[in-house]
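Bug report (template v2)

What were you trying to do?
Predict the complex of my protein with adenosine-5'-diphosphate.

What happened?
Run completed; filing so the output is reviewed.

Input:
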Amino acid sequence: MPSIPGLQARLSEKLRLALVYRLARELNAELSSAEVLRRMLHAAAEALGTPHASIVALRKRELLAAYALGGDNEADPRPVIERVLANGLAGFVLHNYRTVIVNDLTTNPLWMSLPDEPLSPQFGSALCVPMIHSGDVVGVITLSHPARSYFTADAVNLVTTLSEMGAAALSNTLLLEENRQARQRYSTLFDDVLVPILITDLDGNIQAVNRRACEFLAYEREELMYQNINAIHRLGTGPISGERFDHLTRGLEVRFQSSIWTRDGAECPVQVYARRVNDAVEGDYIQWIEHDLSSQVELEQLRRDLSAMIYHDMRGPLGNVYTSLNALQKLLADYPGASVRTFLEVAVRSERQVQRMADSLLDVQRLEEGNKLLNRNNTAINALIEHAIEQVRPVADDRHVRLRLGLGDELPLLYIDADMIERVMINLMDNAIKYSPDYGIVTISTASSGQEVLIRVKDTGPGIPREAQARIFEKFERVKHRHMPRGVGLGLAFCKLAVDAHAGRIWVKSDDQSGSTFTVALPVEAPATRELPLLGAAAQ
Ligand code: ADP
């Protein structure tokens, strides 16, 4: 039945209230955004008796969804609505945030002439209302009627009320849907990611795990739930403790290496990244990412074993070279050509150097693996130093560097791996000579100080910048010196490991005025050591 002009004017207040109340109740139920739009559309068209009506939802002014009444039910209303939004009445309303009444569609240029479009009647009147929420247009509702001047002020008020309610409901449902989609995406990602991830509460109780974590730990998902993260990590007090926990609770990312126990009792090395996450939906939790390091560790072990084997096996042939060179030296002792003897000396010296390098590399590996010192003996340190000096003297002579000795009297014996400590001293002296200018002076001194013996190697070289002084004891750390010889940065790392293994200390004092002084402090060990001075004297 076609409505007659002015009908809405007679819509009783009671009817209007009933309608608004019904729609409010419907919109309050948990609906999808599509359902909110459809209910809005039907409610408005029914209340005003309009045969044509359309509603669009927008996000950032882009068309999100569109529904229409009065056109071809089968046809998708979007193409025509897109045109209207671009150039027609709905577009004008959208841009101006204003309700518009068109009393005569035939004369208003905003009503686009679309003769073949059943959705867009060619005559009558129309009402177009923006749906505004929090200052933003989230949709537009358009009603049209074949009669001219059909929409009264009352009708406008009613549609405005409905559109306000609809706008709020639409925004909320869109937000909810977006949230749901984001969570869906996150949960797919969480489960599919190829790294084991565990989620715990702040006490470490596991609340969620991804598929990879279950595979890695060989547990069913349910079995892991409510276990504690401490129980699956092999750490004395577990990750949820001490300073680490303190960092976590302060929101800092915590990284550490640990081992994880799988269900079948296997122990797997892992690199853990843990972070506290505080999100409005899930609340406060800790996210643990556990990188499986087993293949890395295996590879590293293989590399270590291989290099240890090489260093070890190098020593045999090197020993043969040394013995042969020695024999040659003896045979040629009376040989008239001095240069032959010099060549031989260089060869012997270089062989010794390579031998020391192989020994030190092997020691570095053993000490890094925490192996104990095996060849400790009571040793007279001064004799050791003198022997070491003889090894480096030819290099010093080549450079005209003077080696000055200041050995302390009556030093206690030291219970040390003499071969290792001699290589430490040779390394320090080698460096001192290497970094000294020609005609420089290297002073080597020993002294007793409390429960320690101090051995100092002082040079007149370029010095070491303060900020690099701690760093140079790490592997592969070098300081760039202009016009200075190059090395690999392993010598001091070996020295530190060796001295640490003896429970000693090593440090450097340096400035660019007076060169560098390296000091090694070795503890005078157990009383038994001091009770045997005669042994040391005999050794000297
Ligand atoms: P390398 O000498 O093979 O580079 P080291 O571990 O022996 O390795 O030394 C590490 C770095 O420390 C050197 O590269 C050098 O920069 C610095 N260094 C060591 N000894 C001295 C020294 N006596 N004088 C100046 N710099 C030194």
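What did the reviewer find?
The pocket of adenosine-5'-diphosphate is lined by residues 431-432, 435, 459, 461-462, 464, 472, 478-479, 481, 487-493, 516 (CB under 6 Å). The domain at 4-180 is CATH 3.30.450.40 (Beta-Lactamase).
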